[in-house]
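Data availability (excerpt). The following record was deposited with the supplementary files.
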Amino acid sequence: MEQPSKKQKTSMTSVTSGESKSQSPSWVKYDAATCDFPIQNLPYGIFKPSSDAPPRCGTAIGNMVVDLSVLHETGMFQQLGTWTSVFCEPTLNSFMALGNTKWSAVRAAIERLLSSEEGTLRDNEAVRQQALVPMSSVTMCLPCRIGDFTDFYASREHATNVGTMFRGADNALQPNWLTLPVGYHGRASSVVVSGTPIRRPRSQLQKDRTDPKQGSVYGPCKLLDFELEMGCFVGPGNDLGTPIDINNADDHVFGFVLLNDWSARDIQKWVSTSSTTGRRKNWQEGEGEGVSYCFFVVCSCNHTHVMLTLF
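Predicted structure:
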C-alpha cells in the first residue's frame, strides 16, 4: 500500500471585502486571519460523529462540524420547509439535485444561525452541544455517490509534457486540444476520499522502453505520479439531448474540491497503444488512474472567491 502522510489535511483561504482579520462575525470561535472555514465560506460534507453513528450531512466552521441533520430534526430549518430532511441522508446527492435557489436558502439560514447577532442556536445549549462536533473527532466520508466522472485535459503544460512522453516532442500537443475541451471518461468506483491508502497498480509494462517489439512484462507500476487538480460537482442535470446554455452553467455547478489524480504513466503508455485503450484511465484493476479528493465541497453559492490547498 502507498500510505498518505498522516499530516495530510484540507486547508482553505478565502478572500472577502471588508472582512476583519482579528474579529469573527460568528459566535463560534476561530481566528479569522488563519481559519480554513470561516462563516463566509461554509462547505458541505458527509461525516460520522462517532464510529458507530450513521453518516449524515454537515458543514464546517472553524474547527467544528455542524450536524445539519440535527438542525433539521430540532426545527432550526423549519422556515425552509420539510425538504431539509435531505440532510439526514448519507450523501449530498439529494441536496445537490435541489438546485441553486435552495442551496442559497440553506446557506443563508446556516449563516443566520451561526451569526454573532443570532441566539437561536447559540443559546439553546442542548441543541448546540448535539449539533456542533469537534472536527478532530469525526470520520469523514465520500460527500456523494459518484455516478460518473470526466477528467478534462485542461492544462497546456501538462498536456504537452504527457504528449511528449507518449508521442515525442514533435507531436506532443494534438491539434484538437486547441479547439475543444478534451476529456477522458473515468471509473467512478476509483474515486476515494482523501487519506485512503492507494495501492500501487500492477499490469502489463513495456519490457524495453526503447524497443516496443520486445513486448511486455507483468509487474507493479514504476512511474506512478499524481496531479493536483480541481474537481467540480454537478447538481441538477439536463434532459437527454437538451444542451445547457453556457450562460446558465453556474446554476448546475454545486461546488468544488481539490483532488489528487493518480496516474500510472508506464502502464498508460503501454495499454494506450493496444486494443485496451478504453481501460487506460481506469485504476484499481491495474490500468490508468485513481482519484482521491478533499472531504469538504466548497459550495458555488458562497459569496467569496476561495482557494483550496491540500498538504
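Summary of structural features: Confidence is low (pLDDT under 50) at residues 1-23, 274-281, 283-288, 302-311.
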